[in-house]
Amino acid sequence: MEKQLDEKELELERERKQKKEQKAQATSGGPKKSEKKQKKKGAEDENPEDFVDPDTPSGEKKLLAPQMAKQYSPSAVEKSWYSWWESAGYFGADPTSSKPPFVIVLPPPNVTGALHIGHALTVAIEDAMIRWRRMSGYNALWVPGVDHAGIATQVLKWKDQYGGTILGQLRKLGASLDWSRECFTMDEQRSIAVTEAFVRLHKDGLIYRDYRLVNWDCTLRTAISDIEVDHLELKDETMLKVPGYGTTVQFGVLISFAYPLEEGLGEIIVATTRIETMLGDTAIAVHPEDKRYKHLHGKHAVHPFNGRKLKIICDAVLVDPTFGTGAVKITPAHDPNDFEVGKRHNLEFINIFTDDGNINSNGGAQFEGMPRFAARVAVIDALKEKGLYKETKKNEMSLGICSRSNDVVEPMIKPQWFVNCQTMAKSGLDAVRSGKIEIIPQQYEQDWYRWLENIRDWCVSRQLWWGHRVPAWYVTLEGDQLNDLGSNNDRWIVARNEGDAILGAQQKYPGKKFQLNQDPDVLDTWFSSGLFPLTVLGWPDDTADLRAFYPGSVLETGLDILFFWVARMVMMGMHLGGDVPFQKVYLHPMIRDAHGRKMSKSLGNVVDPLEVINGATLEGLIKRLEEGNLDPNESIIAREGKKKDFPDGIAECGTDALRFALISYTSQSDKINLDIKRVVGYRQWCNKLWNAIRFAMGKLGDHYTPPATIVVSAMPPICKWILSVLNKAIGKTVTSLEAYKFSDATSAIYSWWQYQLCDVFIEAVKPYFFNDSQEFDSARAACRDALWVCLDNGLRLLHPFMPFVTEELWQRLPQPKDFCRKSSIMITEYPSAVKEWADDKLESEIDIVLDTVNKLRSLKPSTDTNERRPAFALCRGQDIAATVQCYQSLAVSLSSVASLKILTESDETPPDCSTAVVNKDLTIYLQLQGALNAEVELEKLRKKKDEIQKLQHALSQKMDASGYREKAPPIVQEEDMRKLTAFLEQLQVISEAEKKLDV
Q: 320-356, pLDDT tens digit by residue?
């Protein structure tokens, strides 16, 4: 074993340093002034320009300053690296490569939008995956793209004008996307693919046109799909803001009114939550077995405002005779249940709303032109005038709200294009059940099954002015009496282009003259997004990319679009691409604020990732709020929220700290309560890494050359230990990444860097460098080698999570002689476990030493500053004594005590000592010499005793439980008995310590 610095040599080294400090203090009046003078003298010898990076031309490798800056600066570190990575081609993937493929498609953000914190989480996770796989020898492809959702007109012009904003933000986040494959959902290639998909699905009988009840958004004036509807559960009467209305609107009530019956039969009372829809009623339904209404079967009620006859029909499916009056008004054109009743009974379907939600002529001249919720009030007033209004009661209800516009969804009958999802949904179900697709976390599989088992046909047409136009042409024949576009669903020709449509019409109507008009509707943006895994690789063409990279490896996205996007990609990918589009689906949690609230502009708690990266003053944060067009009340709430959460603004954190923090949060399952203070903490940790490298560069020296291989067996124990725990950290990180447990990976890396490398190893090896004795040349050399190996592996291990700071620090590390150095850390090999480094026995021994150090630190009085006190280790047995003896100098160095004397059970315990139990075999004492407070020490012992007694009690209960001896494996019973014995022995040690303090 390599000789270590013994306790005497450590003491001599400390004395030399102490004399220097005392001399400096004596001449300068105190340590603070001395430090200032030393710093000032050092500063005079330094050239400030040596610490400033020279300007780097865009796209070239970053030029580094001769000296490392004394403090980590995110903006300085993160400058220039990305443009070099990109121009060097490090992000590209090769379809001809023999490496195994690893493929991710970036969920396409809206081209006119800006990145929000959810995008930042997506980028952080996906870039970590892609960088790790790239470093692990995979042909890693990460495909960028943007979606056209949210653009009004002149789509490509908007894309060119605004698309650069979000693409620049992706680069700011360090996203190593293959920009050579950048695509846009409305570019020419993707548009051709969308048309092809529509035509093929129509040919396969999966796309059809029909008059159906759809979810209509009166603000957007378009149909929306079921999953774009949020359901607001109302427990009571509620006044809500609705877009376009100056006052709030009443919901959560049930209004009863009477319809007069013909032939003088009196009246029939019905109830509704949407009183305005009575203008479109065409029937009243009762249960066929309800005796109260037997005499009315086949009779009619009379509409009070237009005289329309409403037939009394019998419907056992819809009507519950025990609910309300047992009579139900039927509005087939504006209610899903009533729509089905209308079809069963061949009722008239009367639409009473215009596309923007006003009452049309069918609603009657008295109400025509009124906004629907103004008509709600007017109808009640009119019913009261006629004596037909009965009452308004509170009523629980579910209110459909459009997730995009926040408008109340209105069921309306419209001719639309639909996708029959039944067979494709079954394929999606089978893919997950068979394990062909794995959903992570697994708990969301049940949501997948529930949704796909109950899927309804997908309305894919939208009444918008932008998007992919429906590739269908309506045929109007010469002499048609009714030539309204779309009035006859049989007249549609679906084709790839107008030329094909003309040929199709000629074949369908030979010899007839006709006119073709393309459907003005566009396709749901999720239709083109659902094709993305195929279209980004060149589908429908048989491309090299498609052959090499389809199916993809993993789809990472937020759990909120599992059905919006993920299910549609699976259904369309399997049907059109012949295979699942990806093998795994990883769903990240939704980000909320530090208080657990959903982020919203009105609360002022939305976090812009760029404000975290660059920092922002409180004034700047409030100014951004004021640019958001909030109404005055919301603005007040939002401003107060910002002042409360960020009284001093947001400190500059940098991309690396933000990425690491977001990934570390992913253990929080379905929600992340984001506290910016945690991001700031990781920014400070980056400074710790920076200083670790600065220390290392100083100790390695300008002429150090790392060896090509290291001989671990010849190293001091502390070097063997750091390599062994590094080995464990590497193994834990890799297995965590493979299992998609990203927070476990960040935890393993952070713990090794912080608690093992910085807190222990670097502190432990400092004495070797402070002592110039030739006797320790070999140990110093081993420490240098171990330090270099740690930093090289540690930076590569961390790189996928913190790409910028790791690149900059790694570039400063010396490289082995005759070693073909990679030009960038991002194309080096990811660390893998080294069998020869593993040393569990040594780790166990040093764990005992570190526990001893922590206990000694905890025993020091808070008033102690630099005072070193004698310590003692009472060892019960030869093995523990040998361990403490072996690492005595390490314990002294790390705990900053004057000495550590080993005692046996026959030795007298020294007086005036504070006591702590490390384990049943080891108790440590710190001699306080007059500073001992017996009451304080007894309280510490009492707390420790309580803690152990609780553990002992819980274990005893487990062992005394019924069936324990019969069911628990013998090895578990032996371990439990060992633990119980250890608890009892520790309690005995504490009891003896208490007796000594009581004397």
A: 999 889 999 999 999 999 999 999 999 999 999 999 9
Half-sphere exposure of residue 123: CA atoms within 13 angstroms, side-chain side: 29
CB 795 within 8 A of CB 727: no
Map residue 723 onto helix, strand or coil: helix
Residue-level pLDDT at 770: 78
> How many CB atoms are located within 10 Å of the residue 762 CB?
19
What six digits make up the tokens of 879? 């093995």
Pairing type for strands 283-286 and 309-314 reads: parallel
- Residue 694: CB partners within 8 Å, gap ≥ 6? 68, 70
Q: What are phi and psi of 333, to 5 degrees?
A: -90, -5
C-beta of residue 987 within 8 angstroms of C-beta of residue 948: yes
Residue 90 near residue 824 (C-beta atoms within 8 A): yes
pTM of the full structure: 0.83
Residue type, 92: G
Q: pLDDT tens, 944-960?
A: 888 888 888 888 888 88
Largest Cα–Cα separation, the chain: 120
pLDDT tens digits along 169-181:
899 999 999 999 9
**Which among 320, 254, 311 is positioned nearest to 283, based on CA atoms?**
311
Task: Name the phi and psi angles at 871, rounded to 5.
Answer: -130, 160
Output helix, strand, coil percentages for the chain, rounded to the nearest 5.
50, 15, 35
Contacts of 990 (CB under 8 A, 6+ apart): 917, 941, 944, 945, 948
Sign of CA dihedral 74, 80, 86, 91: negative
> Can you say whether the dihedral through the CA atoms of 480, 482, 486, 488 is positive or negative?
negative
- Using DSSP bridges, classify how beta strands 913-919 and 922-927 pair: parallel, antiparallel or unpaired: antiparallel
> Which amino acid, 350?
I
DSSP H helices, 473-566, are 498-508, 525-530, 532-535, 544-549
Distance in angstroms (rounded) separating the CA atoms of residues 639 and 789: 50
Distance CA 779, CA 760 (A): 17
